[in-house]
Amino acid sequence: MGKLSILMPYRPDNGPRDQAFSWVKAFYKKMLAETEICISDCTTPLFSRAQAVNNAAKQATGDIFIIADADIILNPDIINKSVQLLNEHAWIIPYSRVKHISKKSTNELLNTGPSWPPRIHFEVSKTADAGARNFVGGLNIIPRKNFEAVGGFDERFLGYGAEDDAFGHSVNTICGPYLRLDTDIFHLWHPRVRTKSNPHYQANCALLKRYVDAGKSKKRMLSIINERVKD
């Protein structure tokens, strides 16, 4: 097993997100004690997850990246299993279901110390099941060399929305398809940010469509990736 680096994009909100972030960071520090945690924001006024992930990658010294949103937890054994599976697969999406922890249970969880299994039995307000099998964001495990082969995330995506899908299409095309595990991840409650309220939403969708259309051609995909250098 190579050295692991967690890349965690995050911008403080001086509110509920900060509380969840502090707990999740402590969770990873305890559960994956030997793992480097790289936390980064971005320089754009509107939060750019793409740029924040790339900034975290520049800090990282590991040769395996765990790209983790700051509001997600899971059984840490799944991380170790996923790392082993990288011997046979280009990258891993370590979940098939997203279980959304209720606001009440999230608040209770934040008042306990980080552990697995958690010290409380939390209630799940919603489970994304069939739909989650189309999700590629939230938590990815990927060799550094594959992350770098596609130039990381495309920072032309501004705000939230589509950057993770574009990254997925680029890695699938250039490095090989992901393996999805039949397991759960858990999402801590916080006030939602509506993707469609992003003023760059339409431009993000148009850029994503180009990635989708290039998905069967390494040459076309590399052409889109190489545009970033010019931009």
Describe it for me?
There is one protein chain. This protein has 231 residues and is an alpha/beta fold. The chain has one domain (4-230): Spore Coat Polysaccharide Biosynthesis Protein SpsA, Chain A (Alpha-Beta Complex). The protein is 39% helix and 19% strand. It is built from 8 helices and 10 strands. A 4-stranded mixed sheet has the order 2-1-3-8. α1 links the parallel β1 (4-9) and β2. The protein is globular and about 50 Å long. The model has no long low-confidence stretch (mean pLDDT 93). GO terms for molecular function: transferase activity. Keywords: Transferase. InterPro entries: Galactosyl_T_C (IPR027791), Nucleotide-diphossugar_trans (IPR029044). This is Glycosyltransferase involved in capsule biosynthesis. Residues 130-170 form the Galactosyltransferase C-terminal domain.
